[in-house]
Amino acid sequence: MSKLIPGATGDWEVVIGLEVHAQVTSNAKLFSGASTAFGAEPNTQVSLVDAAMPGMLPVINQTCVEQAVRTGLALEAEINLYSVFDRKNYFYPDLPQGYQISQFKQPIVGEGVITLDLPEGETKDVGIERLHLEQDAGKSMHDQHPNFTYVDLNRSGVALMEIVSRPDMRSAEEAGAYVRKLRTILRYIGTCDGNMEQGSMRADVNVSVRKPGDPLGTRCEIKNVNSIRFVQQAIEYEARRQIEVIEDGGVIEQQTRLFDVAKGVTRSMRSKEEAHDYRYFPDPDLLPLEFTAEWVDEVKASLPELPDAKKNRLMADFGLSVYDAGILVAEPETAAYFETAAEGRDAKQAANWIITNLFAALNEQGKSIIDSPVSAAQLGQLLDLIADDTISGRIAKDVFEVMIETGDDPAKIVEEKGLKQITDTGAIEAAVDDVIAGNPEQVAQYAGGENPKVIGWFVGQVMKATQGKANPGQVNTLLKEKLGG
Ligand code: ADP
Ligand code: MG
Questions:
Q1: How far apart are CA 86 and CA 234, in angstroms?
Q2: Rounded to the nearest whole angstrom, what is the distance from the C-alpha of residue 233 to the centroid of ligand 2?
């Protein structure tokens, strides 16, 4: 899906590499026991370590380390049995230590891969360069007071995984697919909740342009983009900006830029010349991390089925299309819902009901599938009522609407509302006879052969007379018999 961008001097290719910061799912911070819960009052989740009080020592959180290893394994990456924490030195008001503890030369995870799911069922592999663990900084709050900036240290010391891709993406769509797929994987293995609105996942977006076949161009890095839509908008804008600069005879300076969400443009923050010299060195307060291969194997064995494997299995076991399977595995909860509803039933029909009817209803109510008023078992019961001819597919839609409203079992709704399909031939025959007797004009039309489609109109009349409860197949057969089809 490499999409070239036309310019005055010919077509251009955009090259993208992403650095995603993903907050590690863990009750406590990377080097302290303080809570990581979202939405707390400012500065209520700050230990003496997070506030960088003199003499405080960091203690590594085993859970965060294991989460990083799980993530590395899910990205089919090399797990480094020996890795080192470094100090990245810089001054910032929300960084009380005066340095961030990160990993520089020897990260915990090396090279891996993410397979993107592109439209039309195509896939593309994007290389992962590395994953390292680091601390988050605090937050400066500029909007609380007219004259002062406040600092909230709740995030200070929260564990982040920085996941660095190779510059392998060639369009905004591919970058969007990358973030989506990464988020899906992290949610499957429970190492990051992926809530971009809450800041649990943010991306630094590196963009350059070149003529196809040329060496890589100079890149600009757009910092801290916090939604997939903004990642794509920032790339579209930035690629055009760079093309214009070059075509006007200018050169691209390596820069750090910001995406202005309101205006949809990127703006320069600082250029390479102003870039910090971080003076990385190994943190003397922390021992290197060392694992045994056996332990890594144990972690690997504990991983759940991953999205790509699940997608392939749904296609093989249930005969789903690559498109349907892709939608159903995007969230682990959706996949589980599907498997329960489809087990022992028409899987394609189950997939359709979920993707069309259930998603529309949930969307309308602003709910996710976890809070669905209709359980997977209940949707399965509804499919059973269709399969055994208790109700028609048409009536099932009405029953489903009531299920969404009330959460009741479909059998109860069908019973209470008297929606059982009429399969009793006598009752259907009576309705057919009434309709034929009452509409001599249409009978003549049909007999004369001038309007063969009038049969459909007759079916409609009978269905109306029976409040939609007659079995449509039986109605059709009876009508043709009686009208002499
Ligand atoms: P740094 O260490 O200075 O941040 P890296 O070489 O590690 O630089 O690259 C950081 C990110 O930038 C990676 O995601 C990489 O894929 C991406 N990147 C590197 N070169 C380019 C380029 N020419 N165009 C677009 N992205 C690039
Ligand atoms: Mg970088």
A1: 31
A2: 20
- For residue 103, how far is its CA from the centre of ligand 2 (angstroms)? 12
Ligand 1 pocket by Cβ (under 6 Å)? 15-19, 164-167, 206-208, 216-217, 219
Which pLDDT tens digit goes with each residue over 327-336? 999 999 999 9
Task: Give me the domain span that covers residue 70.
Answer: 4-299
Name the band, by pLDDT with cuts 50, 70 and 90, for residue 426: confident
Domain count, the chain: 3
Tokens 């008297």, residue located: 418
> How far apart are the two ends of the chain, measured CA to CA in Å?
53
Name the residue type at position 284: P
Q: How far apart are CA 233 and CA 263, in angstroms?
A: 11
For residue 387, report the distance from its CA to the centre of ligand 2, in Å.
56
Amino acid of residue 43:
N
Residues in the chain: 485
Q: 413 and 264 in one domain?
A: no
Q: How many Cα atoms are found within 13 Å in the side-chain-facing hemisphere of 388?
A: 8
Global pTM exceeds 0.85: yes
Question: Are both 184 and 274 inside the same structural domain?
Answer: yes
3-state class (DSSP) for residue 350: helix
CA of 221 to the centre of ligand 2 (A): 8
Counting from 1 in the atom list of ligand 1, the atom nearest the Cα of 167 is: 16
Q: Which CATH number characterizes residue 458's domain?
A: 1.10.10.410
